[in-house]
Design a protein that fits this description.
Layout: H1 7-17, H2 23-26, H3 33-36, E1 40-47, E2 50-58, H4 63-73, E3 82-89, E4 93-99
Parallel strand pairs: 1-4
Antiparallel strand pairs: 1-2, 3-4
Length: about 100
Amino acid sequence: MSSCFAPFTAEESGERLGHRPSVSDAGWPTADPALLERDTATCIVQIDGKLRDRLVVPGDIDETSLRELALAAVTDALAGRSMTKVIVRAPRLVNVVTKR
């Protein structure tokens, strides 16, 4: 990667490390698509725009399951409030709008 900015240093470092072919002829590394997929995601749970909890959930969770998990996690914070709206953007965000 450093051969773009410091070609002589990259060439010498590659030679000392025993890499063949030459750094300039080696080519770019390829990405493995299986490693790019996320197994889990961190979901932010907000009440009236204020952060109340963070949940680690599967990356392919559906909106209804995420809604149930989030509401179960913040039941104490919802005491004495009536929910007006629950906005779910799976798997990243759940925002509960309340009326005081």
